[in-house]
């Protein structure tokens, strides 16, 4: 049995949430998880349908994207995942989907505005959208540059990856993360719901304002941080 | 066995309707029920996924929000529920969800107009939307003030909580109620359907008028009140 | 065993298609069937959830709406159904739902235009919408007048109930019919799909024209009439 | 046992994906497959519901649409399928559905623009839409002319049927194809998702541009062609 068995199972379970939550069709999407002590990442193999996926299929790579264990090629988005793990030091899982409403916002190149408490329960800001990549980035190390675009927009907007655990890559789709692979895919489901709610809200009232800062703070901090009183504290 | 066993089971069953009717994802949403003789309210514990919920998890509190029985923290929305029970004297259940279309109307801060008989079968008026809370309310006793905003809009519009069993809290989402917990969650499902129908109606014809008062009365009173002839009278 | 057992089973089966095809929530909607030889109609009892419905619950009434057999009250829409059977002499089943998209068009009081072959496969015209009822009709024999509004629009537009097996009652929702109860509910499903397609088509291109008459004729008559060559002729 | 047993099973399996992927209701839609060595096509029989379909029901015809084996009439769209097999020499399967969003674009007579990488992962161009047929074509050999309209638009736009495996027939709906029947129906599912994403994208930002050519090339050629590195190469 692999010494990475536990990581593989955690990553496998999180990947299987993608079809269960209807976040992607066929083989689209992928979730990874990191074992920071061992310095390895477990990630979905490329192009394998969820129905066929087994825990032992999860590919183990190091943070330089070198194969450590596995019989299949890792997801072609691996370099994006590992770059996020290198720079967002407190995250334990990353998820990428092509969920319908989040992709629509990414294609429209519009950040998802924070217009209600469902959004504020999960993040303090609009869901950011990266810049479109330059031709040099696209024809260069594309998947690495996808990760760089995410880092760039977080720097530009001065966002914390602990307070904003999701992003839209322009013309592409969402990446989400969290303390572990399960939380990363949870955030992907939440993002899809926020994307749908925001779309509907703006068709009902195109002039809907962003909610007030006091309400954002109230909802975000009753769930997060040291004074949280929402949930069972686990 | 708890002396509140029957209340707990009724509240548990109503909560389980939330995922069955797809009114919320993960742990979002909560239903409560009241035993007016015993003066206690049973409510969903905070942050527990529906898949894990058991009847014995239902938390019993009194109308002053004091814990009477239970091992978990009650829903963080408990104060909103108990305030409604205190002021709406004939209701037996309260339901709060983040259902997608109802949230969109709440975020858009628009009442849902009564444009057809599906709506008139259930309530005589537009679904009201509260005012946005002041900063004082938000930073004060937030969940209690959420309830006060509901009471305020009912007073302002002179609505009866027996004839209008649903409301949208601005920037947040729907609260519904009824004679028991099952009816409260039934109303949440109906509200979501009305919210979707109204959204579609206005995209097809933005100038759709409210239906005539005679048609509202006909549909509402053939189902409700002493001359009702719709349903099996139970 | 009832001498209407076969009718009851046919009507029961057709009613159960309503939740299977997601055409209505809870107790909304009803299907009836007629035994023209016996001069009786079988119809869903009022206010019974589909989960509890049994073939023996189907209520038998005559064409004057008098109870012939059954322990429950017939659907409150019974008079609409029987009026249609009296005037549309070749139909064998009637279905009424509150399906979401069809209701939206009915509330918007707009006929559903024939913009493609999915529509033309099933009917030659736009799906008609009745006039809004007068106050006299509403406060009079309401459910009978609902039927009269359907007859009126068919006369006004010179439509054949064999070629157009569906209608929208303004501010209310769809009625459909066919040679038997199964065909009536089939048409309700088709109508919901046409309503959704038309809504989407007009959001993509608000100036989409009606399709040409030659294409309507081609699609309608390859499926219907004596030169039909579509389907297995049964 | 039929000497076409393997073809029949492949075509049967692909047809059953239509209801599983919710690409059509009732009997709508059909998939075919070709055995190029034997010069025969297997196709769904006309008007048979998916629930009743068996592998032995698949009808075998030759490329001149003559019945080779089968007890039922082949799909009325057979001539469209066989024309595509004659002219698109490398394809092994064809699929036709009435999926909701793809039909809406076909009715709106608008090509689906390439606005993101989900689209570019599958094809290099906008999804083309044919011209509306002339009255002569409609009243002539209609199903053959449907195929001719597809060939015409591919010639006009200089598209390769290997690089663009999907098309919208104006006022009608989608046809898709691929190396085998399974790939044809896979493309039908992808097309429906692209159609929905594009619709939503344009409601969020009506001025969304087409994505840059470098990004189209990057995504298309990392999955397709001799330098592909996406998927497991199978």
UniProtKB/TrEMBL annotation, chains A, B, C, D:
NCBIfam families: PRK08193.1. InterPro entries: Aldolase_class_II_sugar_metab (IPR050197), Aldolase_II/adducin_N (IPR001303), Aldolase_II/adducin_N_sf (IPR036409). Its cofactor is Zn(2+). GO terms for cellular component: cytosol. It comes from the Bacteria. GO terms for molecular function: aldehyde-lyase activity; L-ribulose-phosphate 4-epimerase activity; metal ion binding. GO terms for biological process: pentose catabolic process. Keywords: Carbohydrate metabolism, Isomerase, Metal-binding, Zinc. Its EC number is 5.1.3.4. Belongs to the aldolase class II family. AraD/FucA subfamily. It catalyses: L-ribulose 5-phosphate = D-xylulose 5-phosphate. Residues 9-199 form the Class II aldolase/adducin N-terminal domain. This is L-ribulose-5-phosphate 4-epimerase. PANTHER family: FUCULOSE PHOSPHATE ALDOLASE, L-RIBULOSE-5-PHOSPHATE 4-EPIMERASE SGBE.
